[in-house]
Design goal:
Dihydrodipicolinate Reductase, domain 2, Alpha-Beta Plaits, 11-stranded mixed sheet, 17 strands, 6-stranded parallel sheet, Rossmann fold, 35% helix, elongated, 3 domains, alpha/beta
Length: 440
């Protein structure tokens, strides 16, 4: 058979590794597929720029539109929405299967890509879009196709995990920890997509869509980043035997009326130090999948970086290439369940609330009354006296730190409780609010 022509869109960190593997492992890849894989071209903005890549320089081109229309397999690693979407759709129209690592595009407009793949009879694979080299999406899409997934819980952003890990283990402040991540190449010069949770939210949308056979977009995901996490929050978590992590949580459950829906959220949370996710260090990722028959599964590994991500991309390339040789296709979109997405206010969760209060009799009773008024049950209360503020006169009233951990309640009720606490005369400030997860 003739070699399969592979077009590569983008030659950044990931694209460079993909090109390197395609050329240096060409013989092995041919043996695994059954025919050679020939790198047809590499689309870049500046073809003449020097690159540390030992391939024919004539392969570099700025004509991405022309390249995708003469390929059998198109690998898209340029990211973003456009021109990636237009190039992928053009490639499918020309009969090419597509491998992409573009989580933002999949989370925003995945159904359009799925529809085009079905219309033109080609594959769309995207293992590298979530958790780098960790084989996670294919198990959800294929291995667990006969099971019912109830929950996906995990750490899906290596940058934020590195930052929070350094804050926990070294006592570093948020800004210093981000600077360390940037120096090591874990964080971009502008880390907004990571630290504000946008990256994790896009990945959560993809995970929920696959796990629950329901279309979930990034806009459906409740998102909170880690920019508000302070050293005091980390210390408070340590005091209660917990660790702060940015979690992606996707759940399928019934409401009190028996109506099934899904909830998808990304936010920092305290988890017990004994929980396996608490031990995920540095820039690693880890994800739990809970299914009715399979039980609890854990996927762990490097979630980012050129080589790990390129490994996932090449795995998809081999799969779609085998399909073309054998004359078949992989699974398409499965959205038959079409479950509604539950608003965050209806999601049941727990809060860790730290209050700066007046240290005098009756304060705890007033605080407890607010919780009772919103039907939020208190699990634990811890109190300690705070040092005197320098800006306050020495005759000022003594103050105390009151730390309350709640039982499970609707998030809207918990948020309303915090708002009411902030208006109490005896509460000087609501110092911090963080959700508590992982104790079930």
């Amino acid at each position: 058979m003739e070699p399969l022509r592979v077009a590569l869109l983008g030659c950044g960190v990931v694209g460079t590794e993909v090109a390197r593997l395609l050329t240096t492992h060409a013989d092995e890849l041919a043996a695994r597929v059954g025919v050679p894989l020939r790198l047809e071209g590499v689309a870049v903005r500046r073809p003449g720029r020097p690159r540390d890549l030992d391939i024919d320089q004539a392969l570099f081109t700025s004509d991405a539109a022309g390249l995708v229309r003469r390929a059998d397999v198109v690998v898209e690693v340029i990211g973003g929405i456009e021109p990636a979407r237009g190039l992928i759709l053009s490639a499918m129209e020309a009969g090419a299967s597509v491998v992409t690592a573009n989580k933002a595009l999949l989370a925003e407009d995945g159904p359009t890509l799925y529809g085009a793949a079905d219309k033109h009879g080609v594959d769309l694979y995207f293992e590298a879009a979530v958790a780098g080299a960790i084989p996670l999406l294919r198990p959800l899409r294929e291995s667990l196709a006969g099971d019912r997934v109830r929950r996906v819980l995990g750490i899906v952003n290596g940058t934020t995990n590195y930052v929070l890990d350094k804050m926990h283990t070294t006592g570093a402040g948020f800004a210093d920890a981000v600077a360390q991540a940037q120096a090591l190449g874990y964080a971009e010069a502008d880390p907004t997509a990571d630290v504000e949770g946008f990256d994790a939210a896009a990945k959560a949308a993809i995970l929920a869509s696959l796990a629950f056979h329901t279309r979930v977009a990034a806009a459906d995901v409740h998102r909170e980043g880690i920019t508000g996490v302070t050293a005091a929050d980390v210390a408070s978590a340590q005091a209660m035997g917990a660790v702060v992590k940015l979690l992606a949580i996707c759940e399928r459950s019934d409401d009190p009326d028996g109506v099934e829906s899904v909830s998808v959220r990304v936010h920092p949370a305290m988890i017990p130090a004994a929980h396996p996710l608490a031990g995920v260090r540095e820039a690693f990722n880890a994800v739990f999948v809970e299914a009715e028959a399979a039980g609890e599964l854990m996927f762990y590994g490097r979630g980012a970086g050129g080589q790990p991500t390129a490994s996932a991309v090449l795995g998809d390339v081999i799969t779609v290439a085998r399909h073309r040789v054998a004359g078949g296709r992989g699974p398409g979109e499965s959205a038959y369940a079409d479950l509604p997405v539950r608003p965050m206010g209806q999601v049941r969760t727990r809060y860790h609330i730290s209050l700066d209060v007046a240290d005098r009799p009756g304060v705890l009773a007033q605080v407890a009354q607010v919780f009772a008024a919103h039907q939020v049950s208190i699990e634990t209360v811890r109190q300690q006296q705070l040092p005197h503020r320098e800006e306050e006169p020495q005759a000022g009233p003594p103050r105390a730190a009151l730390v309350v951990v709640t039982h499970t309640a609707p998030d809207a009720a918990l948020a309303a409780t915090v708002e009411a606490l902030d208006s109490l005369d005896v509460v000087a400030a609501v110092a911090s609010v963080m959700r508590v997860e992982g104790e079930d």
